[in-house]
Design a protein that fits this description.
The protein has a 3-stranded mixed β-sheet, with no helix packed on it. The protein is about 15% helix and about 15% strand. The chain has a domain of about 70 residues: Lipase, subunit A (Ribbon), CATH 2.10.80. The chain has 1 helix and 5 strands; from the N terminus they run H-E-E-E-E-E. The termini are far apart. The mean pLDDT is about 80. The chain is an alpha+beta fold and about 130 residues long. This is Putative ixodegrins large 4. Keywords: Signal.
Length: about 130
């Protein structure tokens, strides 16, 4: 019986000793730099055309002389009277700046009116 206790104690001592030697190993505790190297360039873009960020293209303003020349939902607007250019702008939406002072020629000064039927212009803003 003493023989089995001695063998079990020796085995337990061997396990404890192996755990102690690996616990003092500092390789597992220190941070190491990670090598993140990109593949060599082949001269061709690696990304398809769809994944490249698109640069927004700004549309040129459509010049007008009256609101009839603009499409539905747009008005002919002169922002800087009396000499500024007249361009087609969208009608004012809910809670946006608006103006109802249309000139006899059919264009508006400073702000477009509210979109038809949805809002009314009160104190310079479109309200429902």
């Amino acid at each position: 019986m003493a023989r089995y206790i001695l063998m079990a104690s020796a085995a337990l001592l061997a396990v404890i000793f192996s755990q102690e030697t690996t616990a003092n190993d500092e390789d597992g505790l220190l941070q190491k730099p990670i090598d993140i190297s990109l593949p060599e360039s082949t001269g061709v873009d690696n990304f398809p055309q769809e994944q490249k960020p698109a640069t927004p293209k700004r549309k040129r303003p459509k010049y007008c002389s009256n609101s009839d020349q603009c499409g539905k939902g747009f008005c002919c607007l002169q922002r800087r009277p009396p000499y500024g250019p007249r361009v087609c702008r969208p009608m004012a939406g809910r809670y946006r700046r608006c103006g109802e002072d249309q000139v006899k020629s059919g264009y508006y000064l400073r702000h477009c009116p509210c979109y038809l039927g949805t809002n009314t212009c009160e104190n310079g803003y479109c309200v429902p």
